[in-house]
Amino acid sequence: MHRDGMLAARAVAQSATDPLSGLKVGDVPRPAARPGWSVVRVVASSINMHDVWTLRGVGHPAERLPIILGCDAAGLDEDGNEVIVYPVIADPDAGGGDETLDPDRALLSERHDGAFAQYLTVPTRNLIPKPEWLTFEQAACLPVAWTTAYRMLFTQARITAGDRVLVQGAGGGVASAAISLAAAAGAVVYATSRSEDKREKALSWGARETFPSGAKLPEKVDVVIETVGEATWSHSLRSLRPGGTLVVAGATSGTNPPADLARVFYLQQRILGSTGCTRPELIAMLRMMDATGVRPVIDRVLPLDEIDKGFQLMLDGELTGKIIVCPPAPRP
Ligand SMILES: NC(=O)c1ccc[n+]([C@@H]2O[C@H](COP(=O)([O-])OP(=O)(O)OC[C@H]3O[C@@H](n4cnc5c(N)ncnc54)[C@H](OP(=O)(O)O)[C@@H]3O)[C@@H](O)[C@H]2O)c1
């Protein structure tokens, strides 16, 4: 490797049917320092469905290739401080005080090179001190999946202790976070999964009861956390009490479910969209994790040069929680 080079995993092409054909791990130039931005040595990152969408050509124009993938990072800043990278590059003022509403916002790896690399550069505002009670691997789970779950539950649905919450697709990164966070907040959590093994694990994260996808629940719920989309949407609406709230942040299985409008208006159900989180929400979530002892669910840790194995597990729906990717430490 060249002295100014680094190892990185990039999207170099897109394919709807064979997304891994556009994934390339190799040597690229290191990012340079620039005013107002910090260079972070990445210690751990994690894979999100967002990386798969980029490789499939969903929501990411081909003109922006090649680009280093990866939205989540925990590492060391130039002074050796342990940091978590807040992943939304945006102007809070342009979003009325909420950077997720800035029409020009970009998640790491959308317009700026991402975290599957030995180094990345982000606006210094995006660095958040990593608490010592979190490992780098745990910290790398938080910026996208965990904060999305936090915002869905507490900012959008405004859950309170005793609320009944259904989480669809228990094994997912966002879903496993939602189960853990809702249970820690005193909610009665029901979860569905296609896999018996994942249903078993969801109980250990705090779910009251788990069910195969689509099964009837013992009672209607106050809130549904939906990231699966088409495959679970009708069940989500059927499971929701009159006046209840469904928060949707993803649609892994498809974006065109039956609308079921009559049910929605007759039962006065609220359907709320949610995307990402603000920097203050990430900090608030860290305080909650400190107070409750809740920690991320990690499926496995892979070296960066084996990242394709992690992508394959995600494509096959075989993961439980988060897959961590660690670049090699730079040579002294
Ligand atoms: N809006 C945002 O800011 C935001 C942030 C993060 C993620 N997302 C979106 O949220 C979704 C989940 O992301 P993730 O990173 O958590 O992905 P993930 O870890 O791969 O989880 C996806 C989960 O969906 C479930 N699933 C998939 N296909 C299914 C089907 N046909 N029937 C039933 N369940 C199915 C699976 O659960 P089981 O195997 O347990 O059944 C799987 O574990 C993605 O679409 C992603 O783009 C959005």
UniProtKB/TrEMBL annotation:
According to its UniProt entry, this protein's organism is Parafrankia irregularis
Gene3D superfamilies registered for this protein in UniProt: Medium-chain alcohol dehydrogenases, catalytic domain (3.90.180.10), NAD(P)-binding Rossmann-like Domain (3.40.50.720)
Q: Tell me any Pfam family this protein matches.
A: ADH_zinc_N
Per its record, what are the GO molecular function terms? oxidoreductase activity
Full protein name: NADPH:quinone reductase
Regions that span the bilayer: none
Q: Extract the SUPFAM superfamilies matched here.
A: GroES-like, NAD(P)-binding Rossmann-fold domains
For this protein, the record's InterPro entries field holds:
ADH-like_C, ADH-like_N, ER, GroES-like_sf, NAD(P)-bd_dom_sf, Zinc_ADH-like
**What are the residue boundaries of the Enoyl reductase (ER) domain, all occurrences included?**
18-325
